[in-house]
UniProtKB/TrEMBL annotation, chains A, B, C, D:
Domain of life, source organism: Bacteria
Biological processes, Gene Ontology terms: L-arginine biosynthetic process
Organism: Acinetobacter apis
Claim: Oxidoreductase is one of the keywords in the record: yes
Active site: residue positions: 149
Protein's name according to its UniProt entry: N-acetyl-gamma-glutamyl-phosphate reductase
Catalytic activity: N-acetyl-L-glutamate 5-semialdehyde + phosphate + NADP(+) = N-acetyl-L-glutamyl 5-phosphate + NADPH + H(+)
Stored NCBIfam families: argC
Membership in a protein family: Belongs to the NAGSA dehydrogenase family. Type 1 subfamily.
Keyword hit for Nucleus: no
Function summary: Catalyzes the NADPH-dependent reduction of N-acetyl-5-glutamyl phosphate to yield N-acetyl-L-glutamate 5-semialdehyde.
Primary localization class, coarse: cytoplasm
HAMAP family documented for this protein: ArgC_type1 (MF_00150)
Amino acid sequence: MISVGIVGGTGYTGVELLRILLRHPDVTVTTLTSRTEAGKPIANLFPSLRGQTELTFSDLDIEELKQCDVVFFATPHGVAMKHAEALVAANTKVIDLAADFRIQNLDVFEKWYGLKHTCPELLQQSVYGLSELRREQIKHASVVGNPGCYPTTVQLGLAPLLQQAGLIVPERILIDAKSGVSGAGRKAELSLVYSENADNFKAYGVAGHRHHPEIVEALGVIAADTTASFDNIIFVPHLVPMIRGMLSTIYVDLTDKGAALDIQALYEMFYADEYFVDVMPQGSVPDTRSVRGSNMLRMSLTKIQPNKLVIVVVQDNLVKGAAGQAVQNMNIMCGLSENLGLTGIALLP
Amino acid sequence: MISVGIVGGTGYTGVELLRILLRHPDVTVTTLTSRTEAGKPIANLFPSLRGQTELTFSDLDIEELKQCDVVFFATPHGVAMKHAEALVAANTKVIDLAADFRIQNLDVFEKWYGLKHTCPELLQQSVYGLSELRREQIKHASVVGNPGCYPTTVQLGLAPLLQQAGLIVPERILIDAKSGVSGAGRKAELSLVYSENADNFKAYGVAGHRHHPEIVEALGVIAADTTASFDNIIFVPHLVPMIRGMLSTIYVDLTDKGAALDIQALYEMFYADEYFVDVMPQGSVPDTRSVRGSNMLRMSLTKIQPNKLVIVVVQDNLVKGAAGQAVQNMNIMCGLSENLGLTGIALLP
Amino acid sequence: MISVGIVGGTGYTGVELLRILLRHPDVTVTTLTSRTEAGKPIANLFPSLRGQTELTFSDLDIEELKQCDVVFFATPHGVAMKHAEALVAANTKVIDLAADFRIQNLDVFEKWYGLKHTCPELLQQSVYGLSELRREQIKHASVVGNPGCYPTTVQLGLAPLLQQAGLIVPERILIDAKSGVSGAGRKAELSLVYSENADNFKAYGVAGHRHHPEIVEALGVIAADTTASFDNIIFVPHLVPMIRGMLSTIYVDLTDKGAALDIQALYEMFYADEYFVDVMPQGSVPDTRSVRGSNMLRMSLTKIQPNKLVIVVVQDNLVKGAAGQAVQNMNIMCGLSENLGLTGIALLP
Amino acid sequence: MISVGIVGGTGYTGVELLRILLRHPDVTVTTLTSRTEAGKPIANLFPSLRGQTELTFSDLDIEELKQCDVVFFATPHGVAMKHAEALVAANTKVIDLAADFRIQNLDVFEKWYGLKHTCPELLQQSVYGLSELRREQIKHASVVGNPGCYPTTVQLGLAPLLQQAGLIVPERILIDAKSGVSGAGRKAELSLVYSENADNFKAYGVAGHRHHPEIVEALGVIAADTTASFDNIIFVPHLVPMIRGMLSTIYVDLTDKGAALDIQALYEMFYADEYFVDVMPQGSVPDTRSVRGSNMLRMSLTKIQPNKLVIVVVQDNLVKGAAGQAVQNMNIMCGLSENLGLTGIALLP
């Protein structure tokens, strides 16, 4: 059994980690921390967990965490980087669901997160945890930076077209993305209140969003063409009145070489062996409820003009976009079957 | 023109008052106060008001408010009672949308609201503003306590049966009430967050709710039988994942005398001249959307056993349950046509 | 492995059965029928099942169904009773999710469902599948009538008080029930359309609902006091703008004997060994999301007057209220561990 | 008083027309037709209209309609063109809310709507009713084709940039559009059912949507550069789990000439005198609720790169996107003040 600690269990990614890990056949969650709720059983906060666990929040105790095989940080940005070195030194693997280990460029990180990185060397050794695309490095990683939710959809949506040079025009990629409200976290903020969000739709972060630089850096790593620049891709997120679910509509300019390819076949082949990636049949498009509560990511490919492709990608932002992919990474790091504990079918309706 | 001041314009009842009053043909809103937003145009907070008003929040200035003909308090409980005497002395009429002037029994008020009443004499002279049932007193009132949202549905739902003695068993009245989330106000609280309320339903205040004593006192006033006691009526509210709307299901035990009556005819006659009360035809029941955004209250009467009656009452909690009825009261107090500015049709769908 | 057939897989209970059974360790679904979709893969209808099953709808073939160990009917009322005898004769167990085997009184059944029962003898031998309350009979049953969703909440909510005579006043039970829209099924009806139900709340079936006679009959069976009559209990359902979830608020008049008891302790003891029933701690009430997607049913007990008790019960109408309890019954009938395949944790948020 | 007839009053645009016209000071609705509901009071279908009108559905009687000053067609595509000539001959003005008079190119119309146009000459004389952009022609029109909802947002969002040549790259316009579910109409279709749409988000019509050719033709008329081609603009609509509201995110490539302009000032000036168009201040973006139930259309302009502009446009799809603009056109055609009956403030929250 793998012993697991969770730092910061009061947010939505925390409770989602528990929903998955409490049913994972090879895992025991031994420690659960919270600054604000120490001493309280987690089931008091989340009645869905009543009867499922006796876990009680404790203060963060680094010595206790060192006893764990794996520690997940479901905390605000900046917490994991304070504790990661001590844990790694104790041979404890670290998976951060915040942004501390997502971006290698320190200036970019500081600019967008307003934080000075406290362990840049460990950051360099850490692995960006897009499971399907960095599986080999994740296997040997001590620290994994779990990807942002939007960047997960974009990378998996574009990878087949980027792993050959010259198929698309990189600087013309445009991503119009939409997310359910749970992506904003569990916080007492006026902007998150029910009556402000229900029966309403809006764009946000139009002038700039933290996931833009993460996408730019990550696509650069994926791209076979090492000279390609993604700095000018466009990314505009929107907020949908639903709890869970994320859909990215990705618009791509194909080169003539790309236009000549059978894109559908390219994607189907690329993802043929992936349990969690589903390329929908031509003519269909995925909806977010088809993945609600599951770790699946589905996508469709529609050529609307000879050189124009629309890729629609959906996932559950809290599962494949956060806690699910984190557990998928844990499975890879621990040498387990990659889908262990993650085979639940989406809740529909 | 009637000059109006609004104290506390940052909540949902505040913006709803403005939505109505800015289109009221005989009103000018001259003053709008907020402790936290002074200096800011209200349209910055509520983009629905862009282009509709130049009003800017100011600090509460009692001298300025005294210039108004009518002042509405759309504030937390306990604010209106601090300023009402000064305003009344200056001949300014006061309409409080909070609870300061709803309950005559001071002990009950203190127990449920945790506040010592600061102007008990003025409270005694004030009128409880259930427009249809206290019209004559409201006409001559200086201070009106606008009813709570739930109590409005209950009083109008029961009045025809209470204004004759001996038709029902008072102590057996049972009210199972349901409200949209906007009733909880515009506050940065975790319990109000979208992802905590969407696709969810719950009871609250089961062990006791502030509107219970208000209902008990008000029904006592309505009842023809002055010996009737309503202390043991049951009232349990629930929270519905919708923004606006309130539905009360009221269960009544009819006496044999009551059972012998044509209840449908009784209600239709009782409300025949009321613009804002709609008795639905036998066999139908109202839904909340039929009154969304309007000042209408609709009800249906279904006898399910010879001595058992189910009354279903709906209203928009922010209109007839709050701001709309407040304006209706203003119209009565100022000698205007009662439905002036309040004839908008419900938004359906 | 148990081989399972599902008749009528195009509705919400059908797809929910599959969500559960495709992950059940001891089950293989071998047959899936639909009159209208024969020949189509089920994953075409429900993209959530893509990659999870190769099952294709077929026409109902009784010979094929006879090969199954268990057949579920997720069909309209009246279908299961046509085929049950043939299946039972072939030693195939039958679980009907419709009403064919819920009500023993044939006149009552005909009155409320407009159908003449075609196998009254088999009906007599069939068992009403409220798992927790009829476990021993279910073990030996050939045919189980899976309970209605509302009746499940009511029976489990009242059983501890009924299994001793004289604790409550039976004829004064009042149930104000609320359900998500999926309870109405997957049908192309105007009344079910999104824009007719979203941001809306209403009562329905006020003058009478099919689940009333089912509740009356079932409570009569549970009650220790065999002279108790439940004919006059009140049951009024409402429709909540959410997909899944059901909450029943049950109002009970305690006798003096009942009022003297520690009700909380009574319930906790009664359900101490039940995996799927959770008695919430005093002072709390359950919300529907705490059981979303799970087979749990949670309840709370609040004494609001010395002789008045409010019981709040929640479940997911499609799981414990339908497909989940059906699988629970299958587990019991087949001698499996009762919670096999049913331990998934609720999806929150 | 203007006498108005409405053909097809059972859909959402029909009831929305009535919500507006029953409060219009210069209008009397005299006739209301429906094939399926003839003889029934409209208030039976739409309880929001109870007490507001005695109107009863009648069969379509062309002689009766000829008595009207204005007839609105709130019917499926293909109905208005059958009756328009007779009405025009009788001096009755026609406003069609369907597509019969939106597209001048007959081949395009037939291809997308599957209908042969029955009065191509009248079509040529008809005016496309984008009120703000074709006001002068509308004044003198006998027949107005009310624009599609999406095209309204796109044209008003782009007009200021198109009325000078050379500011943008026409063929690179990309519109990612999102609509509430009411846009699909009031129909008994499975795809519109609550449980299929709530808590869900999807793209639709990715491979092609009827509003694309309408947008292409209409932008061609607006554009100062008569050689500009809009054939290759991209338009992808999405469905949002909300009743009302539409948001279009429009991505534009600015030329160097366009990039050198103060776009914000350009738009503010262009719309300075428009009552129903609101250019939001720089740095803000509009949300759909800010226009819920009102005839306002709001937009924001965000330059995200020197040559890249993001225009976000919102409207209520049933008001400015349908019934509201239709009444606005009626006001123009009848020489009334353009905002008469249309000054209601949005319902927020």
